[in-house]
Design goal:
Shape: globular
Number of domains: 2
CATH class of the largest domain: Alpha Beta
Strand content: 15-25%
Distance between the termini: 40 Å
Structural class: alpha/beta
Number of strands: 16
Largest sheet: 8 strands, parallel
Helix content: 40-55%
Order of helices and strands: EEEEHEHHHEHEEEHEHEHEHEHEHEEHHH
Radius of gyration: 20 Å
Length: 368
């Protein structure tokens, strides 16, 4: 089903609206927690419901290996498997091309399993089929995502290969049995090369997808380079379809992307930071491992009394963290996700109220 975007308010290029799929709709801007293996680490689906997350991600590469797409499908797809009734999105395995350095040829990408070393091949067609079995509401095409900085030849190959694979993925998706209940998003590549970004955007639009994602950014380039490359893409994307920036989770980056008309984001950053003792707070990042917090009676974030971690002192939470008590990772993860989801809610309201630039300025003051 073609995903659609309905505008509810704008302030400059920043927009607030609602994305609609076969499952229903969700508000934007929208941050999507990452549940790599069918769960956000240390949390369950009822935790995410209490946090009021609207969309959760699953990782195609990991789920196809453990427990296997056939098993997930037999147990009700990701929604039934995880007991999550709201929206889900699955990536294609393309990020693993960036992070695991598999063998890539015209046909697809050959990986070694991180679990047992066995060899597996993903093609544009098999990635679409596997994601059909997983059953998320939105699936992504298989693409090539190079790290940055990268030579022009590497970026050129990523654009050409991603475009060829996107066309094959689209055909496979449209010929599949899930086309009425799933949406498929195309992915724009090109690194920080403006001409390649424009070319990749136009080639992806020519194929025609249910929504569009910007990939291959926030992978090593400066923020200025990211914003320049992003802006030329969003200027070309259709206004009535969702725009998704892949792998973005820091407050400044989110605000700058929203300023360029992006609707959706995902990242492991808030959960990964939490596990290592770094918290997102109203005053910026706080590293709870610092000795100064050993006897602190203050709550984790005095500016966020509604946080799931608000009942406990910094001293107590630091103690749990330092002795590697698993409770620490759970409580801090709940806090970071709660904080970032509320941040995006406030960002949305600022757009609706016509106060986006003031919000943007405050975020840059606190977080830059």
């Amino acid at each position: 089903m073609r995903a659609s975007f309905a505008l509810e308010g704008s302030d400059g290029s920043a927009r607030a609206g609602r994305v609609t799929t076969a499952r229903g709709s969700f508000p934007t801007p929208c941050f999507m927690p990452v549940g790599t293996r069918g769960a956000v680490r240390h949390l369950a689906s009822d935790d995410l419901l209490k946090l009021d997350a609207h969309v959760v991600l699953g990782n195609t590469y990991h789920l196809m290996l453990r427990p296997g797409a056939d098993t997930v499908e037999a147990l009700g797809g990701l929604h039934g498997f995880t007991q999550w009734d709201r929206h889900m999105l699955t990536d294609s395995g393309g990020y693993q091309i960036f992070s695991l350095e598999p063998k890539v040829d015209d046909e697809g990408a050959t990986f070694k399993s991180v679990y047992d070393g066995s060899t597996h091949k993903l093609t544009p067609e098999s990635a679409a089929h596997i994601q059909g079995q997983l059953g998320a509401d939105i699936q992504m095409v298989l693409d090539v995502c190079p790290g940055l900085p990268a030579p022009e030849s590497v970026l050129r190959n990523a654009v050409d290969t991603s475009a060829a694979w996107a066309a094959r993925a689209r055909t496979a998706f449209l010929d599949g049995v899930t086309v009425e209940r799933q949406s498929q998003f195309g992915i724009v590549q090109g690194g920080t090369d403006i001409d390649l970004r424009i070319e990749s955007t136009n080639r992806t639009l020519d194929i025609g997808f249910d929504g569009y994602a910007v990939g291959g950014l926030s992978v090593g380039e400066s923020q200025g380079e990211m914003v320049d490359a992003l802006g030329v893409v969003t200027d070309l994307l259709p206004a009535d379809q969702p725009r998704y920036f892949m792998g973005l989770g820091d407050p400044v980056g989110i605000v700058e992307a929203v300023a360029n008309g992006v609707d959706m984001f995902d990242c492991v950053l808030p959960t990964r930071l939490a596990r290592h003792g770094t918290l997102l707070t109203s005053a910026g990042r706080t590293n709870l491992t610092r000795a100064e917090f050993q006897r602190s009676e203050e709550p984790l974030d005095p500016g966020s009394p509604q946080s799931p971690a608000a009942a406990w002192s910094k001293g107590y939470l630091r103690h749990l963290l330092m002795v590697k008590e698993p409770t620490a990772a759970r409580v801090l993860t709940l806090h970071n996700l709660w904080w970032l989801l509320r941040f995006v809610d406030e960002l949305r309201q600022a757009i609706l109220d016509g106060k986006f630039e003031a919000f943007r300025g405050h975020v840059n003051d606190v977080w830059s």
